[in-house]
Inverse folding.
């Protein structure tokens, strides 16, 4: 399985009881990054019997506890249950380096590559033999020249590409334009002795905003 996120906004999710496989039948759960829409249901799948390995990058492994705790704080779970699930998730989780090939079962190999989205984000390449094949799961992707992140890696050709399309229907302003707009707003607020409220994701965009300011 790749990612196990919680719904955000008005989106709905498929109950685990309606999944085509049971949590206990899943051998590996790969996490592309630590945003809640990609990891938010990890406590749920672990609580319902997942005992396999959670595979991700070292930074994402380190971010799982604080990001999931922030999410679970608003649920109906008791503190004791949250602590129990945190320990189970930590015991099942493994961090891996970028750009290094590792073996799974049945001759399948995987490699994690930098995705440039947030700290620890990755896209995943799977390869198998008999016959040879390759699949890439993109996760969420970022662009080049981000101030606090390494540029994303360039993937090699593959047989199947499973690609995100969050911003596939729009063209962003350039970084220079966005920075100038932010500067204009901040300058106006400063001159008016006002306040600026900037809603942003806690992980990723907030750190970039602080850097730019």
């Amino acid at each position: 399985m790749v990612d196990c996120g919680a719904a955000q906004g008005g989106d709905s999710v498929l109950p685990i009881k309606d999944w085509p496989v049971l949590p206990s039948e899943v051998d590996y759960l790969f996490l592309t990054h630590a945003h809640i829409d990609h990891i938010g249901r990890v406590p749920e799948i672990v609580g319902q019997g997942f005992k396999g390995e959670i595979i991700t990058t070292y930074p994402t492994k380190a971010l799982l506890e604080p990001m999931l705790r922030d999410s679970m704080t608003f649920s109906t779970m008791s503190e004791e249950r949250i602590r129990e699930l945190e320990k189970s998730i930590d015991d099942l989780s493994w961090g891996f380096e970028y750009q290094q090939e590792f073996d799974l079962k049945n001759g399948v190999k995987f490699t994690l590559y930098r995705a440039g989205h947030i700290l620890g984000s990755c896209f995943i390449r799977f390869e198998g033999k008999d016959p040879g094949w390759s699949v890439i799961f993109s996760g969420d992707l970022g662009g080049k020249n981000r101030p606090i992140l390494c540029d994303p890696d360039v993937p090699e050709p593959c047989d199947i590409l499973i690609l995100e399309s969050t911003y596939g229907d729009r063209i962003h302003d350039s970084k220079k334009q966005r920075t100038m707009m932010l500067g204009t707003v901040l300058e106006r607020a400063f001159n008016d002795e006002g306040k600026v409220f900037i809603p942003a994701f806690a992980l990723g965009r907030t750190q970039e905003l602080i850097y730019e300011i």
